[in-house]
Amino acid sequence: MSSDLAATQPIRLLSRPPAMTVFAAISLAAILAGSSAPTPLYRLYQEAWAISPLVLTIIFSVYAICLLFSLLTVGALSDYIGRRPVISVALLLSAAGMVLFIEAESASWLIAARAVQGLATGALTSTLSATVLDTNRAKGPMINSITPFLGMALGALVTSGLVAYGPAPMQLIYVILLVLFVSLALVVWQMPETASAQPGAWASLKPHVAVPPQARLPLLMATPVNIASWALGGFYLSLMPSLFRVATGLTSPLLGGGIVASLTLSGAVAVLLVRQWPARRIIIVAAIALMGGVAVTLAGVHEQMAPLMLLGTIIAGLGLGAGFFGASRSIMPLAELHQRAGLLAAFYVQSYLAFSLPVILIGIAAPHLGLPVSTYIYGAVIILLALASLAATLLAKPR
User: Fold this and answer.
1) 16 exposed, middle or buried (CB, 10 Å; 0-12, 13-18, 19+)?
2) What is the pTM of this model?
3) Average pLDDT, the chain
4) CA distances from 21 to 1, 3, 15 (A)
5) Mean pLDDT across the stretch 193-218?
6) 40's torsion region: left (phi>0), alpha (psi -120 to 50) or beta?
7) Per-range mean pLDDT, top range of 103-112, 132-141, 387-396
8) Exposure string (b/e) for 240-254, b if CB count within 10 Å is 16 or more?
9) Is 45 strand, coil or helix?
10) What's the pLDDT tens digit per position in 349-378?
């Protein structure tokens, strides 16, 4: 974004592009921290309200499905009415979700809170990512790639610390986030607008999902590793703290939240490491890391060894970050300008369904098979998916 942007706007607290980039990145990290904040609390909810693993996975999946719906409908709205109104309203909606969490007394409250949070997060991730690109085209893509991973790690770690050492463990993190979201909603009006209002706002709310012919085969080849990556992330953010406690007997919330944070932090590291690589190499490395990491993690579950589970998580996290980055990088450049929105929507649908629906299946299986056995099956499917992508990529001619 050129310096003319700040020069043509009234003097505000966030009048310069670097400050605007920092604000958007902080807001993006905060909203993703909010998305992972409930993860270390799920065990407390289970104990307090006798929530089954199935209901727990439904609570998580409602969030992901509502996020997908929001992305597909209001994801492009800020291009037509401006960034600031969408960011401010969505941040206030996030704050409303925090109020529901604070007042929660049953699983129904949690489902409502996660639904509201998902709607707000979908609008914010797209709009804040666009704001980062508006204000820093050179580093914007990298900021948008690593900030969500860092935000999710921060949310899991801070919540775990508050649960272990703070008062009111089931409410305190949400009070902090409530104050933060309201403050950000007010501060955003100090930022100059980066998108001019234009006609077409109502039309933009209609989802458009399409895969152009030239992207169909690459998408098909990347699909298994993409599904494996998102399914792994969904499992960690919903059930991994419970599995860690069952497998190791260690009950510290810091350990449960720490292993989730290890996954997302190593995902951020992976994006930094592979950002200059060709997409084909990224997919190959991602598939290998996913297979190896999940296998080591399952071995840690079987042997009841926390260090082995942590090592496997770090390796799998590298595969998660590389898989997410490599899948999008392998298909998005293939679309023409007028095809990108439809292809991105198709990629979102695939990714967030993989993020949410598989964990419901493990929630159904866990009461009958036990959580460890259900996890072995789940992990085996992830390994097979990664293997399928690896084989397809190796057999295909380099493009």
Assistant:
1) middle
2) 0.89
3) 89
4) 10, 13, 11
5) 84
6) alpha
7) 103-112
8) bbbbbbbbbeeeebb
9) helix
10) 999 999 999 999 999 999 999 999 999 999
